[in-house]
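Changelog-linked ticket: pyridoxal-5'-phosphate example.
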Amino acid sequence: MQNNVSAILDLFPLHSRVDNEHALITGNLSVVELVKKYGSPLYIYDHETIRSQYEEFKRAFQSSYPTTEILYASKVFLNIPFAQMLYHLGVKFDVVSFGEMSMLMASDIPLSNAYFHGNNKTEEEIKLAIKNGIDAIVIDNIEEVNLVNSISKKYGVKQKILLRVTPNIDPYTHEKTTTGLKDSKFGLSIEDHSAEDAIELIATSKNLSFVGIHAHLGSPINFVEPYQKAIDKMFTFIKFICIEKYSLNLTEFSPGGGFGVISEPGLNNPTLEDFANVISEAIRNNCEKYDIDLPKVFIEPGRSLVARSGVAVYQVGSRKTIPEIRTYLSVDGGMADNIRPTLYDAKYFALPVQGLNRKFDDLVTVSGKYCESGDYLIKDIYLPKLLRDEYIAMPMSGAYQLAMSSNYNLAYKPAVILIKDSTSKLLRKRENINDIIALDII
Ligand SMILES: Cc1ncc(COP(=O)(O)O)c(C=O)c1O
């Protein structure tokens, strides 16, 4: 039996607490009142947690490497008010699709604030990016070199590009979210000739302006060493291939994103300072060793910027106990709004939103309401004995949940709200049947 309310509370947005009535408060607002007002399931974002985390990123990285720029990985969650809020904080964006670029444009955010990634950029996407003045395109494969060059020529621009490489460094994370090993659909290997072949082509492409190389090792990464090892390998490639063999200059460099967060009590992850120090030192050391001018650096945090700011709230429904096996406690959401536990065993925790002084002596599996046995949110957690219609809140729900949500079983995607200055406002309405049938031809 466990009652670790305060340890789990640390996973919630900043300043979350339990009030005198044993109810959960976040952003100075009662979670139970919020879910009663906006409906369940509900996704809550806390502005102060995002703002403070962005400041923390700037402080950690810019104090050890002043020209570091922070790009938010849009895939983590993006809609118009959320994009505008980040933009007003000073954040730039990494985008990977027509939809993400269009969302920025619909948010009145010029694409000059975005870098375009992706392992299979379509011609249509590249045209949209170039026509609208994307800052940089991160080239992912050799075909793209010619494609981006010819489209740039058509539009009469010399497009700024970087090359994404795979340094073949294991970041020790889930295999489904490992991206920098040689066997990856992303980027070009620096261990065989593929990255070099692309550099050779880039060097003779008149409408491309090469500024540097990029790698993203995976996500989440809970160690600093993979970054250091990857940076060492990338700089050897920069020195001997990009600079010496093809006379290309390096003015930008990116070790990607992927910074792990403390997603469970007691996890002893590196801090942002640890990541920043190791990355900055590795870049500096390599530049000194190879006599290269220090490039501008950009990092692409997604999860580590917004995961903690998000809370998912669900209402408890049925309970099924299978003696000596387990108790399933079903809630009104699940894999349609959060597929991460099903997809790659992501681990979550939860607290009831009321009655937090009760004993946490009921071992349950929190399952979803959708038609798959693999539809669960938390395997084996001690909670108080919750009754039907009570609510639970799941912290660390700000990243990759809604972004990967679906309408499976024709589920309506939940409402999303933002808490700022002790008030709440809708960022996105809960869907209804009209949203689901909107594109049907009747
Ligand atoms: C190229 C690139 N950059 C950044 C990220 C963000 O990773 P994270 O959310 O772990 O920081 C991703 C995630 O897949 C990515 O593919």
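Closing comment: Example verified and attached. The pocket of pyridoxal-5'-phosphate is lined by residues 73, 76, 94, 117, 216, 219-220, 256-259, 300-304 (CB under 6 Å). The CA atoms of residues 307 and 399 lie 5 Å apart.
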